[in-house]
Fold each of these.
Amino acid sequence: MQNAWVNHAIKEIDADFQRSADTHLIRLALNDFPGISLYLKDESTHPSGSLKHRLARSLFLYGLCNGWIRENTPIIEASSGSTAISEAYFARLLGLPFIAVMPSCTAPRKIQQIEFYGGRCHFVENSGQIYAASEQLARELNGHYMDQFTFAERATDWRGNNNIADSIFRQMSREPHPVPRYLVMSAGTGGTSATLGRYIRYQGHDTELVVVDPENSVFYDYYQQRDASVTAQCSSRIEGIGRPRAEPSFIPSVIDSMMQVPDAASVATLHWLEKMLGRKVGGSTGTNVWGALQLAKQMREKGETGSIVTLLCDSGERYLNTYFDVNWVAKNIGDISVYAQQLEGLS
């Protein structure tokens, strides 16, 4: 009977995938960078609203095929929001209870969306407590701790099978510069950057993977030092990316280079993007695009042409009470005007 339920669950996930179209690749026209094209892979259009929809699907399939998820298994995840929303979506699809363990400061809109999909939230005081609390809940409830920070890099088929890298290169195939000079990605678990980096090498593309990292994250230091014991005292203020510890799913050896991005630059960029796109985007997208613009400037200075692809990770509607609240930004991020002025002249 359990095998029958698992078979049914996998078919449900596959059917859901077939009902979804691929996400759009948006070309951002910038006259200030002649011969250089910037593209945004819009992951906000997934059914659960973010890039994490891909990860959640992969983690559920990984758990099902490993025999870790069975009928009525409670699903527990350590997540500040977007992964939890996407996992709650799939848990509801399969009729499984879902609990998200997250810091109490998580954006209210994300909490509401988890609850919309039937999940519930278990709050801890700081992000460093989410791992132990998730493991404890899984033991107490005889549930399965998804552990995105360990399994994200291995749950996705990085060779292809319409993963995000495969999708990007297929969609770029008829563009003026079909093989991107750079792919730019921020890291939360490190799973997407691992998929991108492995795929680039597997396919032999002449593309560099650049990972951008916000303040209060150790990924940049880990990349430079290769010391997995490095930790940070504070948590990232850019939700969904940056970690206070080096997560197992972050694979520095598949990355070509990293760039640190000030939080004020990330927030200034998401406001600039609202004017460019006519809609709001989240903080991680601001980090990604700021990094992509710095690379575009470097290419322009060297007289290079080519394309840069980065990700639009989720919608800004989830952050109306934070990144789009002037008072919250002033209190928690500080003055963003220096970076806003740098962006203002771009067209």
Amino acid sequence: MRRAMVKGRTWLGACLALVAVATVPAQHPVASPLPRFTAPPVVRGAFDAPDDAPQPPADAQSQLARTFNAAVPLAGGVIIAAQPFYLRAAPEDLARATDCLAAADYYEAGLGIADQRAVAQVVLNRVRHRAFPASVCGVVFQGSERRTGCQFTFTCDGSLLRRTPSAEAWQQSRRVATEMLLGQVDPTVGLATHYHTDWVSPAWDRTMDKIAVVRTHLFYRWRGTQVFEMRHTGSEPDIAMLARISDAHRAATVGSEAPQLQFLPVIPTGQPPLTAPTPPAAPRSGLGSVLAAPPPNVFLVTLPAGGTPASFRAMAEQRCAGVSQCRFIGWTDAARTPRALPMPGSSVDAITFIFERRSTATAPENLRWDCTRFAPEGTGHCI
């Protein structure tokens, strides 16, 4: 974005290159051309929750938050649409930006096209704002290295481990992302830089103007004059956390140890080691990735009936004894225990218990479990 706009055939060639390189990986081709953009028929302030929209929890606190949020009026005045965002960068940077934006769309907005476009617009607004990083991946994964402080919840709450998009859902998210990086604008949310679902009520929104509602998401802008003059850095970082679902980010894990949130392959206790599959007969996941045998420091266990997080921890410590970096994952449903990675979404959704030891000298053990089945305790966190 630091270069001047290229005209004529050069500009047309750049657009075609972006579509060819950054739309979807070769193993997941889009069956039809990019759809023509039609502004979604969203009424400001209206609430409509079809099946593809994130659904609000039914607990009393969430319902109270929804009541409070509904009482906050939309700010007056005209919503100013953002300027089109054209990402001009090397092919590998275009591909990384596309997948980062697609991940934000899928994990933050669900499957609704209108929701995904609105979330993508917020990301691109932030790229242009001096308060945020000047790259798409930098914005989406800002603060993800910390347990608190991440700007987009899915980057630090374990969603990337628990949920895997289907090939069709990933294609759709990448298509929407590509549209936005080719200059598509969502006028519904204007210059919003923040949003949250309507069943939470964070303190920060009290100092901002609520400017739009897109089904279950509320969109905000800072008060006062805001300047969106920042230019894209021209490069996009590799995000190791996306390596499991993104070919563009897979290089982030080559030749290095798995990062803190890297998804490690696992197999059930008692199963013999799997032989590495040989192409072309190797089985593949729904996203086209070859299933691989796990490393020796990763274990998967079908947990015994009647156990507790404390007993599961004892099992994990016994299995990980003498191993400085170890991961132990447990299921209560043996039918959902995977034998290799990438594990299917049905297995990810059914994880009951996770024990992680990253380094006996520098990091404490990390415990997580399904708090809908087991009561939360002070020594662990809910999955």
Amino acid sequence: MRADRLVSLVLLLRQRGRLTADTLARELDVSTRTVLRDIEALSAAGVPVYAERGRHGGFSLLPGFRTELTGLNHDEALALLTAGSGRGELVFGLGSALASAMRKVVDALPEGHRAVASDAAQRFLVDPESDLLSRRTAAGDETSGTVLTEVRRAVLAGHKLRVHYAAAGEAPRWRTVDPIGLVTVRDRGYLLATRAGEDRTYRLSRVSAAEVLPEAAERPDRVDLDRIWRERSARFLAGGEHLTVLVRVDPARREELLDTALAVRAEEPGADDGWVRLELTFQDARHAQWALWQLGPDAEALDPLSLRRALHDRAATLATRYADPSAR
């Protein structure tokens, strides 16, 4: 609908500042000519959109312009209500803010749509705490609300951050970092930062205290978190004593195996048996042996040979121990 597109156009200009007609056309998935017609319609309706010519020109809203844009359609409201019903509300300590936002979403709906959208959202369940076998899914990191608030403040304000952090196998100690951004992966939160100019990634569950400092952080004005995360993940997997393992697994146990691995490097369906072949990265040989042992006959290590031998020896020891059922 054109009304929805006009609202989206205004929101884009409010949130991102000056944009060219070509950029707006790509964002709205329409032609440049349609964008120009929409700009004219907004101007005629009293929305202060103005054009700046030149190499760095484009369209902008008059500085300070604000308007109440509460025209959510049914599917937009349903998407927000459904997203807010999942466990994602705990991410970065924003649960209470999300609950407040959901109330505002409902309040913004037309009177006749409120009950319909709320009832519809109850029909969707996002990321429950247990699967079909009643196994509880892996718990996310637990970090105090105070710590998350301080970390979030530093990230958004662009200030240096002092954290009391316990690295794996080390005693906790204070570190002063330049925060770049926050990332969540499978309910685990991470702070991406630099320290003395070096890249650092901190797991939020290992931060026991945090303090925002008055000094400005040394960081770029704009950041591509997705790119940074990919680069750091690649460096992490390339270093250390990590072990790459080729396995075949019953598809019914695939997710359980993936939950224990550090990363998935490749995946392909089995040739005839229906099992899935995976190339996985584990912390070390002991980690890989433990993960595959949990799956019993539903998984097989194909490579490296040393892992196959270790699993064979372990199974042989147990087979010998339980060979005589009458033994006590």
Amino acid sequence: MIRLSHLLPTGAAGIALALLAQPTPAHASKCESGAFNPITKVRWTCIFPITIGGVKVGPSDPLGKALDAQTAAKPLCACRKGATFTFGVKVSFWSPNRMVDVVTEPGCMMALGADIMATHGRLQGSQTSLSDGTNTRKLFAQMHYYVAPVWKMLDMFTDLPCIEDDGFDVAMMTELLPTWQSATLGAIVQPEAILFGNPAAGLACMADSAAAAAGKVIDPLFWCMGSWGATYPLAGDIHFGDSVEAWAGLAARGTFLMGRLGALTISSEDGCSFRPQPIWTKSRYKLQLMEPVKGGQCVNIGRPGSLWTSAKHAPAHDNSQFMLFEKVICCAGISTP
């Protein structure tokens, strides 16, 4: 497991730079109290469909259709780990194993129900109107990324080999990441962003936006987040017309950021292992809003807010929390020495 201390800049210089590189402060809502409750906050219908040995249980999901078809076509599996062999059937499902906060109140750890960092007005979230004739606004917020193996927390399905057992951990706090505070600094650290800041790359995102509206994504267009905007720059600024949609965009961007930092993995298609994910596979992820209002569905990356954000922004609540579901494939069977 990659810990927070392994990813953040070290020394007082890095923290000082993070505190100085900030947008214009703005009033943000108070940090909500109450620790994470997986029983009441997680939308458990999002784990479906489940495919076991080629037999599908639950409603269809266009997002994971290709993986479900692959599991059904090749239901048997065999894995080797050292001198141990596992023979069995493939099982695929959506696993809730990560949480993401998008907060305008710096240091507000919604999963812990506490504000752990006194920034004295620095790093504060903001909303500004753009005077470019587009009638849009720009949001700045911080992001917290948690390792949250819900199945392990509830002591369920722990015998499956693809269920993570890393324990709860705070993997990222962008308050301590200078590049999140400045898009310019972020472009220096991630120079590939320059390749996608052109009209041709922007036009390609129109196709991804259309696919997202239909419940799908186009994985090769990794620099696009459908209707949520562009993946780059990897910073806390995002243009928006819908606040909830903007929160989801920053949560998705934070997930992509974890991959660029080497802290994102996905299960292999044979169900035998996890492999690094430096560039995300968008079709493997979907988000469920948990705070400030529990979402009624899980949404694919880039799904237009008009289809799911209605009545999800409670008055005076500008901090949000999402559960990140990952499409998992594992080989469940009998191990032999």
